[in-house]
């Protein structure tokens, strides 16, 4: 076994650094190692006032309104975000592949086309979009931060990359991921560790952690990640952003760098792709244009259905449909820590007292089902016993990243009978979970006499994205609250609510013994951590809808996002300006 990964990593890092113009290098007067680096782009004097305005004051939807009419030039917008991405890289280590020059050249071509024809290329005309390192971009690596995959440039684009380009988008960089794609921090041996720009002591999440850090730094107006157990939602949670994971089959996924042997996803849990953004309307924008532009012949797994064809919260009669939300406080495996439980209480109370008469809140308890789902999910995540990754890492003598060292062990792969049993268990759990949505299913906590009729259903579920605040580096506990919905294949998203304040440090964990080892570790994130590390970090909620009801989820999240506005106190509550 060779041990040459260090030289490969050094070459890749040198290659990446060479693609950042020297004039975009941060001056030595800026402290790049302070905890909160969100203000560095403004302090750097690298961006002009117009570039600061473009990158800070507008979301992707607002930028597109100017780009599509020629009010904004794509070359100006793309250049501004390339410069800001370069700055973000220097303080958070969020990028892998950089192709700023190609992006600026494409932006100029799009501007010339619009000036010549008077028509934008497509609904994403001139908009810079960043993508996770898993996506293949022709001519660039999709190394996943692993030495064995380095210096193997893609011969073709991923299906979604081709689609985005056909819609007029400008791709300009790819973002960092954790080793094995199955960790909840974003560290690998080739590119190193991505940092959380809100507080570098806290994790940016994984596996789309580079995407989360870049969007939080406003180095991207719209990012695309992937999610198999929380990999879009956890970075959105950690960085105070909106994240959206669709069900499998809604967004093209074909042609990505595999995190396993070919075909292995078909016996496990399928990953999905979706947006990480600064506004809910940007999540809707990306989902809408992708659904409207994706014929089934692009990807054999895609369910071809336009946005208009999907179920929504439209009026069903002369009276508006009531949004009925189930509030789930625990999965029955890990009890959320005091600030998370208080947040859920305040969310429930705010929604119940909303001036809108069309929100109804129901408490639900899925704790009888949660532990079964966790056991099944963990079974799927270990089907091959980790052998693909151990074999891949050993080619160049790579060691495991810190977060994985106590969690990933080489084991025998599961037998055909064991895999079949897992598939049977998942189908059984997916069937049982259908009852969560019905008042007659036994999961609702209500004294309403109408409950006996069993005629009501939930539109969405609100629950934690994690049972703890944004965790310190390498201390993230588990993916229980996100992986649950990958197992069930439900679309799910993250809404940022407010920041963690002094009042959130109060409260104690239960005096009763922990339910299990997971619960014990979770409590230690309260009892064995200096709680001041959480100050200023993001507090969020997760919103879930039934399988393949992405438009229903978007509609529900928009209503909830507006209704929860009174709770906001800091980051996450800034309204985007109009062009």
UniProtKB/TrEMBL annotation:
It comes from the Eukaryota. It comes from Vermiconidia calcicola. This is Uncharacterized protein.
